[in-house]
TrEMBL record:
Residues 34-48 have a biased composition (Low complexity). Keywords: Acetylation, DNA-binding, Metal-binding, Nucleus, Receptor, Transcription, Transcription regulation, Zinc, Zinc-finger. SUPFAM superfamilies: Glucocorticoid receptor-like (DNA-binding domain), Nuclear receptor ligand-binding domain. InterPro entries: Est_rcpt/est-rel_rcp, NHR-like_dom_sf, Nucl_hrmn_rcpt_lig-bd, Nuclear_hormone_rcpt_NR3, Nuclear_hrmn_rcpt, Oest-rel_rcp, Znf_hrmn_rcpt, Znf_NHR/GATA. CDD domains: NR_DBD_ERR, NR_LBD_ERR. Residues 214-403 form the NR LBD domain. It is found in: Nucleus. This is Estrogen related receptor beta. Residues 17-31 have a biased composition (Polar residues).
Length: 403
């Protein structure tokens, strides 16, 4: 958490160095194209959050990235670029911004059967069971059952036996690792599932069997939708300096934003969301997606960050340009990806999940967004089952990568 908190600090430093880029959150997501230039941090609780790169200061660890408004170094066309991108999304959206996805059934807590508020520590659960599990792990509490360790745990009887309730939490797949991360501010675990028989059973209840048929196609579709290589094209006439680095990276972020929005439109189900929800998700997640791209491009290299195919920084270059802390933070994330040997199929799915699960307090149709999240989660799990059946926990490990 601390390392990614430093990453957020450096991103803020980079953005502020490019000019007065930080915008406050708009009062409404429906303010048209103008809203797309605003910063949209989430104030959502653990119940409504999503998978994403964890950085200090945000409910899921992310300090939502500042938007470039077109003033300052390298940002002359940023605002216009974003407006153009928003217009491009509009052109392909239904004229009435209808919600195209059907609402999914109400979720139930896998521990007690109460209404689930979201995914906590790996499974769908209610606030009461989430808090109980967290207290138990953080307090290292041991319980004993006065009966035979077979007490029924329901909404009405969940407080009758703490021992059996805790065993039920573990049985349905709650992850102790999630609570350890949750001790750090910003480490809450959201929309993650443990890949085991219980959660697989739950998924089968939520997603009709016919929906499972195209799941393997989703990853293939994401591979095809992956953007072409991007180039920074730094000015060769400028001497290496912090000014040149900031100019290059700001311009690169400007152009990558265009690419990200075009890519998002090709994620299965994304274009079916309302225009407002598309914009809200993009506002919240574009910096996460940008950083994930840097991480994946850097995997073949040793201690180097590939911001673009023609703009690669090592430690010395980062130090000279004032970006050492950012370099060190992202490099640690690169090492995590290397350790798990993340494949491209996994990367493209994680990147799509970063967009679908981004924390935005301005979602208009949460059921539609949730259905997109479920579809992508299931696609990742389906891929792992088919390709790495001997590693039943790999999907959960991948989802915890950025925390």
């Amino acid at each position: 958490m601390l390392l990614l908190g430093r990453m957020a600090t450096e991103e803020r430093h980079l953005s502020s160095s490019c000019g007065s880029f930080i915008k406050t959150e708009p009062s409404s997501p429906s303010s048209g194209i103008d809203a797309i230039s605003h910063h949209s941090p989430s104030g959502s609780s653990d119940a409504s959050g999503g998978y994403g790169i964890a950085m200090g200061g945000h409910p899921n660890g992310l300090d939502s990235p500042p938007m470039f408004n077109g003033t300052g170094i390298g940002g002359g066309s940023c605002r216009k670029r974003y407006d153009d991108c928003a217009s491009a999304i509009m052109e392909d959206s239904p004229t009435k911004c209808e919600y195209m996805l059907n609402a999914i059934p109400k979720r139930l807590c896998l521990v007690c059967g109460d209404i689930a508020s979201g995914y906590h520590y790996g499974v769908a659960s209610c606030e009461a069971c989430k808090a109980f599990f967290k207290r138990t792990i953080q307090g290292n509490i041991e319980y004993s059952c006065p009966a035979t360790n077979e007490c029924e745990i329901t909404k009405r009887r969940r407080k009758s036996c703490q021992a059996c309730r805790f065993m039920k939490c573990l049985k349905v797949g709650m992850l102790k690792e999630g609570v350890r991360l949750d001790r750090v501010r910003g480490g809450r675990q959201k929309y993650k599932r443990r890949l085991d028989s219980e959660s697989s059973t739950y998924l089968s209840l939520q997603i009709p069997p016919p929906a499972k048929k195209p799941l393997t196609k989703i990853v293939s579709h994401l591979l095809v939708a992956e953007p072409e290589k991007i180039y920074a094209m730094p000015d060769p006439t400028m001497p290496e300096s912090d000014i040149k680095a900031l100019t290059t990276l700001c311009d690169l972020a400007d152009r990558e934003l265009v690419v990200i929005i075009g890519w998002a439109k090709h994620i299965p189900g994304f274009s079916n969301l309302s225009l407002g929800d598309q914009m809200s998700l993009l506002q919240s997640a574009w910096m996460e997606i940008l950083i994930l791209g840097i991480v994946y491009r850097s995997l073949p290299y040793e201690d180097k960050l590939v911001y673009a195919e023609d703009y690669i920084m090592d430690e010395e270059h980062s130090r000279l340009t004032g970006l050492l802390e950012l370099y060190l933070a992202i490099l640690q994330l690169v090492r995590r990806y290397k350790k798990l040997k993340v494949e491209k199929e996994e990367f493209v799915t994680l990147k799509a999940l970063a967009l679908a699960n981004s924390d935005s307090m301005h979602i208009e149709d949460m059921d539609a967004v949730q259905k997109l999240q479920d579809l992508l989660h299931e696609a990742l799990q389906d891929y792992e089952l088919s390709q790495r059946n001997e590693e039943p926990r790999r999907a959960a490990q991948l989802l915890f990568l950025n925390k």
